Amino acid sequence: MTKATARHILVASEEQCQALKTEIENGRDFAEVAREHSQCPSGQQGGELGSFGPGQMVPEFDKVVFSADLNQVQGPVKTQFGYHLLEVTSRG
User: Is 15 exposed, middle or buried (0-12, 13-18, 19+ CB in 10 A)?
Assistant: First the structure.
């Protein structure tokens, strides 16, 4: 089974999500932004979610994680939890 590792940032609004994505694209460190802004407990680990397989995350999350290019910030991705920025760090 395919496994992926990813990190994410979870915020309440699409506007905040887009603003943080712009900061990261302009050179800000993803992990630093996650620690400062993510509403998910994973934010304290720089947004790291560890390793997981298809179906272990919500469908909107899975779709991006198992199709997006590696090491590129994706989002905003809307789920029932809020808006996410995702970065897939490995897949195999």
Answer: exposed
